[in-house]
Write a structure and sequence with these properties.
Blueprint (H helix, E strand, L loop, with lengths): L1 H25 L4 H24 L5 H34 L9 H24 L6 H31 L1
Length: 164
C-alpha cells in the first residue's frame, strides 16, 4: 500500500511541478506572485498539519484531501489563465473586444492568495497565537476590493455590449 501512496504522491508532485514551471514561464515577470502562492500553500499545509496534530484530529485521508485541494487550486489557476489567454486571442482574431477576460486569471490568483492567508491565520489562531485585528480585517477589505473590481469590469462590459 505504501508503494501506491508513493506512486500517487510522485504523480501529483510531477503534475504540480509542471503546472508551476508552465505558469512561471508564461508570467516570468510575475514569478514572485506564483512563488508566493506556492509558499503560502506549503505554510498552510504545515500549520494545518500542526493544528491537527495538537488537536488530535490528524488524519492521513484529510491530509491527502488537503494536498488534492491544493493541486486543484493550481489547476484552477492554470485553467483561468489559459482560458483568459485563449479567449482574448480569439476575440482579437474575430475583432471582438473581450480583452478584459485576461484579468480572470489574475482575479482568481488574487482570491486564492487571500484564501491561503486566511487559512494560515485561522490555523495560527486555533493554535493560540494572538493575531492583530488589522490582518483579519485587512484581508477582508482586500477580498471585497478584488470582487468589486471584477464586478465593475463585468458591468462595464455588459453596458458596452448593450450599446452595441
Amino acid at each position: 500500500m505504501n508503494d501506491n501512496i508513493m506512486k500517487f504522491f510522485n504523480i501529483v508532485n510531477s503534475i504540480f511541478s509542471a503546472i508551476i514551471v508552465g505558469i512561471s514561464e508564461l508570467f516570468s515577470g510575475q514569478r514572485v506572485l506564483f512563488l508566493g502562492y506556492l509558499i503560502l500553500n506549503i505554510i498552510d499545509f504545515v500549520t494545518g498539519t500542526i493544528k491537527a496534530r495538537i488537536t488530535k484530529k490528524e488524519s492521513s485521508s484529510k491530509g491527502l484531501m488537503g494536498i488534492i485541494k491544493k493541486v486543484g487550486y493550481w489547476i484552477l489557476i492554470l485553467i483561468t489563465f489559459l482560458a483568459s489567454y485563449m479567449l482574448s486571442t480569439l476575440g482579437n482574431l474575430i475583432s471582438v473586444d473581450i480583452d478584459f477576460v485576461i484579468l480572470f486569471g489574475w482575479f482568481t490568483l488574487g482570491c486564492l492568495i487571500i484564501n491561503e492567508f486566511r487559512s494560515i491565520l485561522e490555523n495560527l489562531s486555533e493554535l493560540g497565537i494572538k493575531l492583530p485585528d488589522f490582518l483579519i480585517n485587512g484581508l477582508e477589505v482586500i477580498q471585497n476590493i478584488i470582487e468589486k473590481n471584477a464586478e465593475e469590469i463585468e458591468n462595464k462590459k455588459d453596458e458596452q455590449n448593450k450599446k452595441e
